[in-house]
Amino acid sequence: MPRGDRYDSFTCLMISVMNNDSNITKLLLNSNADVTLTDDYWSMSALHFAGFHNSIESLNEILKIKNDTDFIDQQSKWFGFTPLNFAAFTGSTDVAQALVNCGSNETIKNEIGNMPLDTAKYYNYTDITALLQPNYHLRFIRNSDQNINGENDNLYLIVEKND
């Protein structure tokens, strides 16, 4: 019996991406699955789900099939998020890097008015912040305070502005 809800229009490709199953994703793509299809509820494609679910292997397979910027930068009805917005929202660094490498527009704002960089900053995803804000870099520092075992092993990642 059909559920009659927002999940009815998910394609097999979307589900394989959500489950991070790159083998099924490859099989579906080799069988000519349409990567441009979106669900009826949120207008999200498999690429959006890859960003949301940190499915880097599936994302890479999809980008081998289609990687034009109109597709990569398509906004969903979920607050106007693009795949890059989703990657920034969920901390999916590898996905964000792959999308940026394919030319994803980093300045597209969602319906709240945030660019992916704003979202990454809000959630304190320093690696994505550094990726989307090239005038910054990452640096590791050690804290000289000792832990309960008397060891100095406190390592911190900080984002610093380039000179």
Automatic annotation (TrEMBL):
Gene3D superfamilies: Ankyrin repeat-containing domain. SUPFAM superfamilies: Ankyrin repeat. InterPro entries: Ankyrin_rpt, Ankyrin_rpt-contain_sf. Keywords: ANK repeat, Repeat. PROSITE patterns: ANK_REP_REGION, ANK_REPEAT. ANK repeats lie at residues 8-40, 79-111. Pfam families: Ank, Ank_2. This is Ankyrin repeat-containing protein. It comes from Anaeramoeba flamelloides.
